[in-house]
Design goal:
38% of the residues lie in helices and 18% in strands. It contains twelve helices and 13 strands. The protein is globular and about 55 Å long. The two termini are 35 Å apart.
Length: 287
């Protein structure tokens, strides 16, 4: 049944938030939200999304848009001075009565040396970025937000299919290294399941069923496309040419346990492993 008068407000209409917004729009929800980029706001308006500019030092021209929404989802990462949304509107959000969600990352757990990690695990991130994320989670949780710890996000226009297409794919070998990942449509499914079954202050790991070595995922994408995979490279040798961000990903090795989204929210993943997900990405990318 369509929810004709429900409204979602997204702080930060990025890739994951937009995927969730589109799913709710299909269910009859009205969508509003923010971007730092005025041009993006205009393009969102063309999609029927009521978008306004929000950036540090630039408050919303119409804050009532989020205050009156049935659900608020924030996907804006903390910056050097904390969580931008809470810095601007923490006071207002304290008295907000609707469903609150915050998109975080499994990076908060830090390194588990390949072990399985569920939501009860200690958050041991040591980087400044990871520590800022833990603090933001705590602040959102104190407001009753639902916390979604996202594994490596992929989907149409953002997968190994695309990196192979544009020649940026690498096959880095770091023995024993695995990553968990999640398709953008499954993120949307989990958030929608939470809106339907609120449990304020709960954290959810959002990951698929099969953590895997990154080089295997690249090789699988190449096999689907019928192209040669890039040559294998030793991680230690290649590390000096990687961005700091890429190196930081390889510093953490863990397998993300996703049982809670299944047992508590009843989620059935559309793409339980990267194989189904990459096949769908290839279909979505056209001939």
């Amino acid at each position: 049944m369509a929810d004709h008068h429900k409204r979602l407000f997204c702080f930060g209409l990025g890739y994951s938030a937009l995927g969730t917004a589109q799913k709710l729009a299909e269910l009859g929800w009205q969508i509003a939200g923010t971007s730092r980029d005025p041009a993006k706001c205009r393009s969102f308006s063309g999609l029927g999304i009521d978008a306004q500019v929000f950036a540090p030092g630039q408050p919303l021209p119409r804050p009532e848009a989020f205050l009156t929404a049935d659900a608020i989802l924030s996907s804006i990462a903390p910056d050097g001075s904390g969580d931008p949304v809470l810095s601007a509107y923490g006071q207002e959000l304290r008295s907000y009565q609707g469903w609150l969600g915050y998109l975080s990352t499994t990076g908060v757990y830090g390194d588990a040396q390949g072990a399985w990690v569920d939501e009860s695990a200690e958050r041991r991130a040591t980087s400044a970025r990871g520590r800022a994320r833990i603090l933001a989670e705590d602040q959102w949780m104190a407001l009753g937000a639902h916390i979604f710890r996202l594994a490596g996000i992929y989907g149409p226009s953002r997968s190994q299919i695309d990196s192979l297409h544009n020649g940026t794919a690498k096959r880095l070998i770091k023995p024993g290294q695995v990553f968990s990942r999640i398709h953008v449509e499954d993120i949307a499914g989990v958030v929608c399941a939470s809106i339907a079954k609120p449990a304020p202050g709960t954290a959810y790991n959002v990951a698929d069923d099969e953590p895997a070595p990154p080089q295997d995922v690249v090789a699988y994408a190449a096999s689907l496309m019928g192209v040669e995979p890039p040559p294998e490279q030793d991680f230690e040798t290649a590390a000096s040419s990687l961005s700091e961000m890429a190196r930081s990903f390889y510093a953490d090795n863990k397998r993300i346990d996703n049982k809670r989204i299944k047992t508590e929210l009843g989620v059935r993943l559309i793409y339980p492993t990267y194989r189904e997900g990459l096949s769908a990405c290839l279909s979505a990318s056209g001939p």
